[in-house]
């Protein structure tokens, strides 16, 4: 099962493109970042004053993928790393853009992110995958927002190899009743505003993915709530 955004998908692509054994197959759950950003802007549910863009994604893609969200009708953006100082610097650079009336894409993470990204990784992604529509948690189906194994590599596509088994798999609810993770992900509510937060939902008994992962906003808010 292959998960993650543009950051992790090149590793899957490498495995697919380098003569994997016959019994190796991939259930691709890889997602693409730009379609989710387009959806956030199009849905218009929250006011977005600026974006801290993920440096690990930009390490692969480069920074041009963020240009369509900048300019006169866009918002300030800063590509950052994940260290505390990176994030503090990113906030400072965003605030400076707002003060100066600019809406540009700036690269705070220049020690890792090159403007063009990683051409070799991008070339592997283009060969190993094809973009397809897929539903996201908290979103409708987003066009061309996921990576599926390319037709030329279909012998290693688990959705096709195990099609007869998967068609009988039961549907599983994404969240337990009362969990509002989708709204947290879209920025409509804070984690603390979910009625289940800290009551029925905690890291020891998570009701949704925002509480499951240590990177999830609910998990972080719970651990540092004091």
Structural notes for this entry:
Helix content is 35%, strand content 15%. The chain has helices at 9-17, 33-43, 55-61, 84-100, 119-128, 158-161, 163-166, 181-185, 209-212, 217-223; strands at residues 2-4, 28-30, 51-54, 77-80, 105-107, 129-135, 141-149. Helix 1 (9-17) links the parallel strand 1 and strand 2. The longest helix has 17 residues, at 84-100. The radius of gyration is 19 Å and the shape is globular. The model has no long low-confidence stretch (mean pLDDT 93).
The biggest beta sheet, please? 3 strands, parallel
Cα Rg: 19 Å
Helix and strand element order: EHEHEHEHEHEEHHHHH
Average of the residue pLDDT scores: 93
Overall geometric form: globular
Helix content: 25-40%
According to DSSP, the number of beta strands is 7
Stretches where pLDDT falls below 50 for ≥5 residues?
Answer: none
Helix/strand/pairing category:
alpha/beta
CATH topology of the largest domain: Rossmann fold
Percentage of β-strand residues: 5-15%
Q: Helical element count? A: 10
Domains, number: 2
By CATH reckoning, the class of the largest domain would read Alpha Beta
Question: How would you briefly describe this protein structure?
Answer:
With 226 residues, this protein is an alpha/beta fold. The protein is built from 10 helices and 7 strands.
């Amino acid at each position: 099962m292959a998960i993650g955004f543009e950051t992790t998908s090149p590793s899957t692509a490498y495995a697919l493109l380098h003569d994997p054994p016959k019994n190796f197959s991939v259930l691709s759950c890889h997602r693409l970042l730009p379609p989710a950003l387009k959806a956030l802007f199009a849905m218009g549910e929250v006011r977005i004053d600026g974006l801290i863009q993920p440096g690990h994604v930009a390490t692969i893609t480069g920074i041009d993928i963020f240009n369509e969200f900048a300019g006169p009708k866009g918002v300030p953006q800063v590509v950052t790393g994940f260290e505390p100082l990176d994030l503090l610097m990113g906030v400072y650079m965003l605030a400076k853009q707002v003060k100066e009336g600019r809406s540009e894409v700036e690269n705070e993470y220049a020690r890792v992110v090159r403007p063009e990204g990683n051409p070799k990784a991008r070339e592997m992604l283009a060969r190993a995958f094809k973009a397809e529509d897929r539903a996201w948690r908290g979103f409708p189906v987003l066009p061309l927002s996921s990576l599926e194994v390319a037709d030329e590599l279909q012998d290693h596509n688990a959705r096709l190899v195990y099609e007869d088994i998967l068609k009988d798999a039961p549907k599983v609810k994404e969240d337990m009743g009362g969990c509002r993770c989708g709204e947290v992900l879209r920025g409509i509510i804070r984690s603390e505003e979910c009625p289940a937060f800290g009551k029925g939902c905690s890291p020891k008994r998570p009701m949704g993915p925002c509480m499951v992962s240590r990177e999830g906003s609910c998990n972080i808010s719970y651990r540092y709530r004091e």
